[in-house]
TrEMBL record:
A Pfam family of this chain: Arginase
Cofactor binding, per record: Binds 2 manganese ions per subunit.
Cofactor: Mn(2+)
Name of the protein in its database record: Formimidoylglutamase
CDD domains hit by this protein: Formimidoylglutamase
Name of encoding gene: hutG
Role summary: Catalyzes the conversion of N-formimidoyl-L-glutamate to L-glutamate and formamide.
Catalyzed reactions: N-formimidoyl-L-glutamate + H2O = formamide + L-glutamate
Keywords, in A-Z order: Histidine metabolism, Hydrolase, Manganese, Metal-binding
Molecular function in Gene Ontology: agmatinase activity; formimidoylglutamase activity; manganese ion binding
Species of origin: Thorsellia anophelis DSM 18579
Gene3D superfamilies: Ureohydrolase domain (3.40.800.10)
Keyword Manganese annotated: yes
Annotated positions binding Mn(2+) 1: H122, D181, D185, D272
Protein family (similarity comment): Belongs to the arginase family.
Length: 348
């Protein structure tokens, strides 16, 4: 583990506990024992995808900044919390990070852990989804963890895709993605970037002959070109604009979410912090003018978890270099606590 959890200590016993008192290190280098749906944090120190996408780098510092804000958050329940450390760093290539992220998450999900990935640029989405996808494939097909599929990039000079998984044909699963984001991130680029992860996933699922069920909440019309809307149309992407969500209409939104949730059994949630207004999330690569209010996103998250289909979540694009008085890192930490509470509530 690269982060040392420490913080305020007001007294002994669970009634004084904060996150730094409760969370413990999880060693993923060996076969994991049963995790019992416990929450596991995994940091991805990567912003190479942001650089390739001509954005403002700094998101590689995100995992540490989020943990620093989490450390002193008060705990009111005896949650089981693990920290699986970080992957990535300056010396790691983006393509290798995506593969390692896939393998680490797959291992945790096979052990029935619930992963919250701390980014990192939004290029982390590919590894988050693929880790869930392969982990569920192994778990649902009851394949022993010792019989892992070797994951290799097909071609370093093109968009990274993983060789077809031989277990796919054994038991097909239906998966979905809900991305809170001002951008589609469906750029058709020859290499992996922070603007291409969901197109990368679409191409991967096409190889495996699996449906691409993707929805995006918070799209800003000014931030997406016509070709991105056309790509979304061709891929049958469902989406809501940020200006549609300034007021919470629960009945209308529940109907929209139900129509999407009915397509699949397993859901990956991705939260790009630029879905929030720059007044709440200034520390991102591309700050948003409009954004979606936090209370709306919280309600949606609660509705998604009530479906029982959420398997993994990530928080992307925190850039401490441009944060103001830790506003964005505090928001990211708050979202981690929201996801954690919702996960344990759904376990009950």
């Amino acid at each position: 583990m690269t982060f040392k959890w420490q913080g305020r200590q007001d007294g002994e016993g669970k009634f004084h506990h904060r996150w730094h008192n409760q969370i413990v290190e999880l060693d993923t280098s060996n076969n994991l024992s049963e995790l019992g749906n416990a929450v596991v944090l995994l940091g991805v120190e990567s912003d190479e995808g942001v650089r390739r996408n001509k954005g403002r780098v700094g998101a590689a510092k995100g995992p540490k900044a989020i943990r620093q804000q989490l450390a002193n958050v008060a705990l009111h329940d005896c949650y089981t919390l693990y920290d699986a450390g970080d992957i990535g760093g300056d010396a790691a290539s983006l393509e290798k990070i995506q593969i390692e992220q896939t393998e680490r998450i797959s291992q945790i999900i096979q052990a029935h852990g619930f992963v919250i990935v701390l980014g990192g640029g939004h290029e982390i989405a590919f590894g988050s989804f693929m880790g869930m996808y392969y982990g569920l494939m192994h778990r649902l097909n009851e394949i022993p963890r010792t019989k892992q599929v070797s994951l290799e990039i097909q071609d370093q000079s093109t968009l990274p895709l993983i060789n077809k998984n031989p277990i796919i044909s054994q038991n097909m699963i239906k998966v979905g993605i809900l991305n809170f984001d001002a951008h589609f991130d469906l750029r058709q680029q020859p290499i992996a970037t922070s603007g291409s992860p969901f197109f990368q996933i679409a191409k991967q699922l096409d190889i495996d002959n699996v449906d691409f069920n993707y929805a995006c909440i918070g799209i800003n019309e000014n931030s997406n070109t016509a070709i991105l809307f056309e790509t979304a149309r061709q891929l049958d992407v469902s989406y809501l604009f940020d200006n549609e969500l300034q007021v919470l209409d629960k009945k209308w939104l529940a109907k929209w979410l139900d129509d999407f949730l009915n397509r699949f059994e397993h859901l990956y949630i991705s939260i790009d912090l630029d879905v929030f207004s720059y007044t709440q999330a200034p520390g991102v690569s591309a700050p948003a003018v409009c954004g979606v209010p936090l209370y709306v996103i919280e309600w949606i998250l609660g509705y998604l978890f009530s479906s029982g289909k959420v398997r993994i979540a990530d928080i992307a694009e925190l850039n401490p270099n441009f944060d103001i008085d830790n506003h964005t890192s505090k928001l990211a930490a708050y979202l981690v606590t929201v996801l954690t509470k919702l996960k344990y509530k759904s376990n009950a």
